[in-house]
Amino acid sequence: MEFRIPKREVHNHKINLDDAKLVRELSSNLVKELADFLKCCVLFGSSTGEPQHEHDIDVLLVIDDLTRAVTPSVIEAYRIIVERVGADISKRFHINTLKISTLWEQARQGDPVLMNMLRDGVVFHDVGVFEPLQVLLREGKIRPSQESVNNYAARAPVTMQNADWHILQACIDLYWACIDIAHAALMKHGQLPPSPARVAPLLRDTLVKKGMVKPKVVGTMEELYNIQKDITHRNIAKMSGRQFDDLRVRAQEFLKAMQDVLRV
Description:
Shape: elongated
Strand content: 5-15%
CATH class of the largest domain: Alpha Beta
Oligomer: single chain
Distance between the termini: 93 Å
Helix content: 55-70%
Order of helices and strands: HEEHEHHEHHHHH
C-alpha cells in the first residue's frame, strides 16, 4: 500500500512568470554543478510581488557548511561556478548566499531581512530546509529575539553616522575635482602643478592677474581647501544637505571657469 502524505501549500504569491522561468533554469543548472552542496534556491524580492518594470532578479542560495568542509578554496570555486552559471542565463540575477548555520542563526533571532525572505520567497529547490521555516513563520513560531532587537537598535545610530560621513566624503570629492581641474588649467598656462595648499595663491598670481578668472572663483578653491582640512582633522563632524548643495553649486562654477581657461 502506497503511503501518501498530502503536501501543505507553503505560499500563494503572485510571481513574475518570465523571472520564474529564468530562476528555474538557474536552479536546475546549479544543482547539476553543485549537487547536494546546494540546499536551497529561492526567488524573492520584486519578482514575487506586484508586476514591475525591469528589475533585478533576487535569488537566495543556501549552501551546506555543516556536513561539508567549506574552505576558502571551496568558496572561491563556488563563487566562480555561480557567477558563470548565472551570467549564462541572465545578467539580471542578484544572487545572495547563506550558509545553513547562518540561516538557522538568523531564523533563531527573528532577523527582519530573513523574515521577509521567508514571507515572500518562492522555492525552486529545497531539501527540507527553507520551506519548513516558512511554515514555522506563518504559524507564528519564529519570533524576533531580544538579541535581534538589540542588534538592530544598535545598528541604527551607526548607520546615521555613516550617512553624515558620506556627505563629508562627498565634500572631499568636490575638493579633489577642483584641485584636478585647477592643476590642468595652471599647466595649460605654463605652470608646474603646485601642492594643494599653493593652488589658490598661484591661481591669484597667474589667472586672476591676467583677468582670466574672477577672484570669487578662487575663493571657492580656498574654501574647499579649508573644509577638506577641517574634515580630515575631524574639526567638522557634520554638514547639512543644504550646505553641501550650496558648496556643490560653487564647485561646479569653479569647474566651468577652469574649463573656460583651458579653451583659451
